[in-house]
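Query form — protein Aldose 1-epimerase

QUESTION: What is the three-dimensional structure of this chain?
INPUT:
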Amino acid sequence: MYCKAFVAFGCIAIGLVEAANWPFDVTTLASPDGSIRAKFVSFGATLTELWVKDRKGRLRDVVLGYDDNSNLLTDPAHPVFNPVVGRYANRIKNGTFSIPITKLPQPDGPNVYHIPTNDHDGQVTLHGGIYGWDRRNWTIVSRSPTSVTFKHVDNADEGFPGVVTVFATHTVSNGGTLHTEVHATATQKTPIMLTQHIYWNLDAFQDGTTTILNHTLKIPASRVVTLDGNSVPNGKFTPVSGTPFDFNTAQQIGARWDQTLGLCSDVCQGYDHGWVYDRPFGQAVDSAGVTSKERPGASLWSDKSGIKVDISTNQPLSQIYTAFWLDTPRKAVHGGPSLNYSRWSAVAIEQEGYLDAINTPEWGVDQIYDPARPFAWSSTYHFSTIP
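ANSWER: The C-alpha cells for Aldose 1-epimerase are given below.
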C-alpha cells in the first residue's frame, strides 16, 4: 500500500480494498427498470451524470458537469457542480460566528470562530470555506448496483470547532427516483448546515435550447429571506406576493425576468435567494437514527423535453440560483467543449437550512450540533414526464 497526495484533501492510502477511493473513479448506479442512471465520484461525493427519460422515452443527462471530472478540483471558477456542500452551506457573514450564537461579532476568544472567506471581496464565507466538503475526497464505504455510500471525516477543517464524521448515501430506484441522505455526528458543539448543489437543465441542451428561462418552477413558499448587498440575511423576510419571487402558482423562471435585475446583486439578473417552505420541516432524528419525514418541496419541469422533477425534503428552505456567474465548458453530451455553460443555462435548487442562522439569533433556529444531537439531511428527486 502506498500514499498519493492531492491538493486540498491530503494523503489517500490506495490498496486492494481502497482502490475505489481515488477521487475521480466513477461509480455508476442504475435502477432495475432503466428509468434512471446516475454516476458519482468520490471527490465531494459528487453527482456527475444523471440520465432520465424525456416524454419520448429517450434518456437525457439533466445535470451539468465535466467530461474530465478532475476539473472539479482545478476549475478556477469553482461552480460547485452537484456535490455535497458543507460543513456549512451558503454564506456566513464575515466568516465568523460564536457559540452560543450572537447577532454582533464577538471579541476573539475560545468560543469565537473564524472561517476563511472566499466570496464578496473577503466579506463572506461561501459553502464551508476555501476547502469545504465539496473540495475533499470522500471514501466509499459501501456500494451496490443501485446505491453508494461515501464517508468523510472533517478534522476541524477551515476553522470550525470539533471533528465531524459524515456519511452520504445516494440511491436510485424504479420509477425514476434519486434519493440522497446525509448523516453527521460531531465531537463537540459546532454548526452544521449542508446541501446538495445540483445544477439542473431538463432539456439537456438539446433541440437548440441554451437556458432554463423557459423551465417552469413551483415553490410552496410565501416568504423569501431578505438579503443585504453581500447576499447575507439581515434577519427579515420578504413576502413573495406581488413580487417576482412568487412561484406558489407555477411560473416560467423567465416570466418576470425584467424585474429580476439587481435582485441577486447590484449587477446580477436572476435569482439567488432562499424560499422558506410554508409547511413545517425539521431535522430531528429519533433514537434509531431515522430522519424527520420528508415533505413536498419545489417542482421544476420543461415543456420542451417533457421532463419534470418533484423534490421532497426534510429541509425548511430552498435556495434557488439561476447561475448568473456560470462560464464553464460543457460536457460533450451537452454540445461541448467548444461551447460553454453560461449565465442562466442551469438552475441550482438547493435544499438546506436557514442561511447564516448562526449569526441570526432572532430567528430562533438551532443549527448547533453535538455528540448528543446528530444532523440529518435528506432529499428525494422524483422524475416523471408531462404531456
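ADDITIONAL NOTE: Confidence is low (pLDDT under 50) at residues 1-20.
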